[in-house]
Design a protein that fits this description.
about 260 residues, alpha/beta, 2 domains, eight-stranded mixed β-sheet, 11 helices, about 45% helix
């Protein structure tokens, strides 16, 4: 079995979407979507782990709801499991509400289903900076917010990789996604999500543990896993604990791991 990722481009609503596939073609499909200012690079460890245990991993380098549906249509995938973090998690909420017939299960990480004005307003300065100076102006502050300075100082390779990915993000793409985040309004409808869902959040990720607990209480088929010592990207800074929670989800139903 090969674990090398193969890349292709799929036509989406706003342009071509880079899609990276890994694992056996006959395996059950898992779609991975990333945070804003990131890419599929954030899922490298999880993609390898899932593909090595028989799953067909499909990592998308963009993650709005319509993009995911476009990728599934292009690859002739009628139903899939879905895992998204931050912006990818928010998009997953939308998928669960509007496209439940395309989903087998979901893992939604470090996200919320609404965006109250004080939290939405913080994006205005970031949007202004990206338009004026490019996304490289956001690289240092964003990585420090996601991981914390001590982690970045102790893991220079990780810090450098994420700063480079952030800096290479187009301002137009960032602004479009940031505006989508500011308009998030799914909370009143999350109770309609019926697919089995695991919510995962880093314990140190600001207000998100409380926001995700609120989501979990509204969703009949959801469980919540809080990762101790983790920030906004628990799959990176506490990967062992995150991976254990992820695998508990995907192997909870023996039928899921069969193509």
């Amino acid at each position: 079995m090969t674990h090398q990722s193969q890349t292709q481009f799929v036509k989406g609503p706003a342009g071509n979407i880079a899609v990276h596939t890994q694992g056996p073609e006959t395996g059950p499909a898992v779609i991975l979507t990333h945070s804003i200012l990131s890419s599929s690079m954030m899922w490298l460890e999880q993609a390898y782990l899932l593909s090595s245990t028989g799953w067909r991993v499909i990592a998308i380098d963009t993650d709005l709801v319509a993009d995911t549906v476009a990728v599934m249509d292009a690859l002739n995938i009628s139903k899939a499991h879905y895992m998204g973090l931050s912006l990818g998690g928010m998009s997953g909420v939308g998928l669960g509400i509007h496209h439940a017939d395309r989903l087998l299960s979901m893992v939604l990480c470090d996200c919320r289903a609404d965006m109250p004005s004080p939290m939405g307003d913080v994006w205005n300065d970031r949007i202004t900076s990206a338009i004026a100076e490019g996304c490289q102006s956001l690289a240092v502050a964003t990585t420090e917010r996601w991981f914390g300075v001590p982690f970045i100082e102790a893991n220079e390779v990780v810090g450098k990789a994420f700063r480079q990915t952030i800096a290479s993000t187009t301002a137009s793409g960032f602004v479009s996604c940031a505006r989508a985040i500011q308009g998030l309004h799914y909370l009143d409808n999350v109770s309609s999500i019926k697919v089995p869902t695991t919510l995962i959040v880093g314990a140190n990720d600001g207000p998100l543990p409380q926001a995700m607990q609120d989501m979990q209480q509204r969703m009949a088929e959801a469980t919540l896993e809080v990762i101790p010592g983790a920030g906004h990207l628990p799959n990176i800074d506490q990967s062992v604990l995150f991976n254990a929670a992820m695998m508990r989800h995907f192997f909870q139903n023996p039928a899921w791991s069969q193509a």
